[in-house]
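Quick one:
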Amino acid sequence: MPTQGERYPAGGSGGQLGALTRQQLQDLEKKEKTGAQKLLDVVIVLLPLFCGGIALLEYLLVPDNSMNPQPNTYVGFLLVLAAAYLCYCVFAAGKLPRGERAVYEKVRYKAPLYAALFLLLAFYDYLTLKTGVLTQPFVPCMNSILNIAWSDRAYLIECTLHTLRLLFLGYFIGVAVGLVTGITCGYWERAHYWIDPIIKFLGPIPTATWIPIIMVVVSSLFAGAVFVIALGSWFAVTVASMTGISNVDKDYFEAARTLGASERQLIFQVAIPHAMPSILQGCTQAMSSACVAIMVAEMMGVKAGLGWYMTWAKSWASYDKMFAALFVICFIFTAVTRGVELLKRRLLRWQIGRTA
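Output:
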């Protein structure tokens, strides 16, 4: 079945053929919404702006329970978020007259989550700065976190770059070795016989267990951290690749051999393409494992990175810096994981089109 941008033939006058995209076909199949339903959609789309106003009023009108220097930083942060969402809404609304509803539908779908985010920020500010239920400075308010993140931005950027270098180096090494191991074990029974016990022995061992051993054995803490990250990624990709190759229907191999396919063609044109969904799922799991492993490695050994920054800030009781690094970690790892998911969907767009 054609994917999002591909065309479907449709009958036209005079024997000519028109073309409709899958999105246009879905729009034709949908029932026309009533006036009340359309009004409800508009209300839901505007709901994040309303909740953003609640968060802003809560911060400005409710008295502070503790010191709050440079109070306008958080105000600017809320306004930037609201302005970004408003621009997103205007962009989506601008496409409606041309019949392009995909962006608007996405905004409509995500709007409740964005509204909940603003309410969560207001609730967090109320518990920290306004009432002190969460005691400062042990749990700093958002304004303090934003101020310290901005003032210490140069150091945070340096630690972020170190973390990303370590993350991707270990991840890609683990994925590369995992693909070779998994495809070999999945395709050749003899290799599976010898390597599978090693996988079962090393794979279930938690990442943190390797830290003391690595710190003693290797001469470089950076190399040891790369090994720990690569090991977790290797296990996830190996198991997924081996499972995917093993589950390929044997009839495909027999048909390819009948047509004269070589062993190389059987691997790269039959086995790997059919196992690609499992392989990419393993790559996604490997990224999650790598994100956990890098924090453990940085907190235990290396002398730079966001994990090290958090440990260093905690030792000096700089809890605002610790929370700032935590938010940066959450943002980066969410973006990286999202990127892997988008790559997976891009490579498997034929599968999405088939199941749509």
